[in-house]
Amino acid sequence: MRNPKPKEWLSSDWSQAKIASYKPFNFVDGEGVRCSIYLSGCLFACKGCYNKIAQNFNYGTPYTQELEDTIIEDLGQPYCQGLTLLGGEPFLNTGVAIKLCQRIRAEYGGTKDIWSWTGYTYDELLKESEDKLELLGLIDILVDGRFDISRKDLTLQFRGSSNQRIIDVPKSQEKGEVVIWEDCVDSERYFKG
């Protein structure tokens, strides 16, 4: 597992604007029916990573306007709750992620939520580059922190290790401190006080 200094890893230096896969209408990458985009490239290299192939920035296919249009159309289905950004590392692919999230906000406002997984902690992101902060501001729910195989717990909701948190980003930004997502069913087990 690698621990970057603030602004050490920049999307502009690493991203190849590729996606590992796009999965419309799934039930596993957050609450409700979701469209999930897996962005290629990650530098954290967590031991036991469930999507190791997507750590390669050159893996997959280029992000295209056609794919973006498909995602926007899929999100328009009334039963689809929102978009999920995964990877790889979405915050090392901000050029793709910001463009897509901005379009979702422009076309759907707040009617579709945006979730993202990241190896960064919320506190680390607050010290990061402007593009990472911009992406953070477009997200509703952030599952933060590196996967830690020594803290692996498959009973957790939407995450793989007990150090990871499910964060309500707008509430956290409003309060100036981390606010755990109110629907986290195991929050009292790990996030007391």
Number of helices: 7
Q: Kindly, what is the distance between the CA atoms of the first and last residues, rounded to a whole number of angstroms?
A: 28 Å
Structural Rg: 15 Å
Identify low-pLDDT runs: none
Q: By helix and strand content, what is the structural category?
A: alpha/beta
CATH topology label: TIM Barrel
Helix content: 25-40%
Question: Which percent band covers the strand fraction?
Answer: 15-25%
CATH class: Alpha Beta
SSE ordering: HEEEHEHEHHEEHH
Q: Care to count the β-strands?
A: 7
CATH-derived architecture? Alpha-Beta Barrel
Global outline = globular
Q: Give the averaged pLDDT, no decimals.
A: 94
Q: Within the largest sheet, what's the order of strands?
A: 3-1-2-4-5-6-7
Total domains: 1
Major beta-sheet overview = 7 strands, mixed
Account of the protein in words:
The chain is of the alpha/beta class. The protein has a single domain (11-190), classed as TIM Barrel. It is built from 7 helices and 7 strands, in the order H-E-E-E-H-E-H-E-H-H-E-E-H-H. The protein has helices spanning 11-14, 65-75, 94-108, 122-125, 130-138, 169-175, 187-190; strands spanning 18-26, 33-39, 61-62, 80-87, 113-117, 141-144, 165-168. A 7-stranded mixed beta sheet has the order 3-1-2-4-5-6-7. Helix 3 (94-108) links the parallel strand 4 (80-87) and strand 5 (113-117). The longest helix is centred in the middle third of the chain and has 15 residues, at 94-108. The chain starts with 10 loop residues before the first helix and ends with a helix. The model has no long low-confidence stretch (mean pLDDT 94). Pfam families: Fer4_12. It is an enzyme of class 1 (oxidoreductase). GO terms for molecular function: 4 iron, 4 sulfur cluster binding; [formate-C-acetyltransferase]-activating enzyme activity; metal ion binding; ribonucleoside-diphosphate reductase activity, thioredoxin disulfide as acceptor. Its EC number is 1.97.1.-.
